[in-house]
Amino acid sequence: MHESIVIKGARLHNLKDVTLAIPKNRLVVFTGVSGSRACRALLLALVAAIR
């Protein structure tokens, strides 16, 4: 099985208790409604998870 970066219970901006596993060595795309800032919030959570 491939390794993943796991984010559990993210609560940042408009994220409310989001849990996800992002596979390493794969192309991953985040999409959302324009102006919702969901993609930015997920990227900030990802940066915090890998630090």
Biggest sheet, open or closed, and with what strands and sense? 2 strands, antiparallel
Fraction in helix = 25-40%
Shape: globular
First-to-last CA distance: 23 Å
Question: How many β-strand stretches?
Answer: 2
The assigned structural class equals alpha+beta
- Poorly predicted residue ranges: none
Strand content: 25-35%
Order of helices and strands: EEH
Mean pLDDT over the full residue set = 78
- Which strands sit side by side, in order, in the main sheet? 1-2
Q: Which value, in Å, is the CA radius of gyration?
A: 11 Å
- Total count of helical runs of at least 4 residues: 1
Architecture overview:
It is a single chain. The chain has 51 residues and is of the alpha+beta class. It has one domain (4-50). It has one helix at 38-50; strands spanning 4-10, 18-23. The termini are far apart.
Key structural traits:
51 residues; alpha+beta; two-stranded antiparallel sheet; 1 helix; 2 strands; 25% helix
Compact summary:
The chain is α+β, with helices and mostly antiparallel strands. It has one helix spanning 38-50; strands spanning 4-10, 18-23.
